[in-house]
Amino acid sequence: MKELKMDRKTRYTRMVLQDSLIELMKEKPISKITIKELCEKADINRTTFYAHYTDQYDLLRKIEDEVLLWVKEAIITLIGKTDKSGTIEVLEGICQYFVENSRHLQVLMSEQGDIDFQKELFTLIYEQCGMSSSSAANTGLGLNEDGFIFVVNGSVGLIQHWLKNGFTKSAKEMAETIYDMTIPIR
User: Which of 7, 27, 35, 54 is deepest in the core (most CB within 10 A)?
Assistant: First the structure.
């Protein structure tokens, strides 16, 4: 029972620290955020912070790693779909993830976010689909290299715009839009 309580407390502490970092990143770059102000915002003492993270960059990296892991799994699922309804269903799940995690993703995917994370996101998508900077392998999605790059960059850009403007479409509408825009490129 004590272990469950500790896990719950740890999860809460990490969530509060993550949320506090993201809130501060809305105001200023991570390089200007101090551990002191992060702990004050989270109402956590510095000792507790250092029990979980080495610095604010380590905290940000952990947030980014969670997102990248989720994206990797989503891409694997997406590649496995060959029919329209299955593809749209997975795309809707991806869009819903963005809605549910919008507080973090709005910052991570914006100008305030870490550009290296954004590059890593594109690299992850390309690699999961069989593309690399050294080869123009078949993506498995029926797209040539130029079409694939256009689809990925266009889809990510559209999602960034959707995040920035407060979700003017539902996750399902966004998934259908992305799907419909990729069809002519195939």
Answer: 35
* C-alpha–C-alpha distance, residues 95 and 163, integer Å: 10
Distance, CA of 54 to CA of 60 (rounded, Å) = 11
Separation CA 92–CA 178 (nearest Å): 10
Bridge partner list, 132: 135
* Fold entry, domain 57-185: Tetracycline Repressor; domain 2 (1.10.357)
Per-residue pLDDT of the chain (186 residues; tens, 9 = 90+): 455 556 888 899 999 999 999 999 999 999 999 999 999 999 999 999 999 999 999 999 999 999 999 999 999 999 888 889 999 999 999 999 999 999 999 999 988 888 899 899 999 998 888 776 444 444 455 567 888 888 889 999 999 999 989 899 999 999 999 999 887 665
Q: Do 67 and 105 form a contact (C-beta atoms < 8 A)?
A: yes
Nearest to 67 by CA among 132, 17, 118: 118
CATH top class, domain 1-53: mainly alpha
How far apart are alpha carbons 66 and 32 in whole angstroms? 23
Is there a common fold for 1-53 and 57-185? no
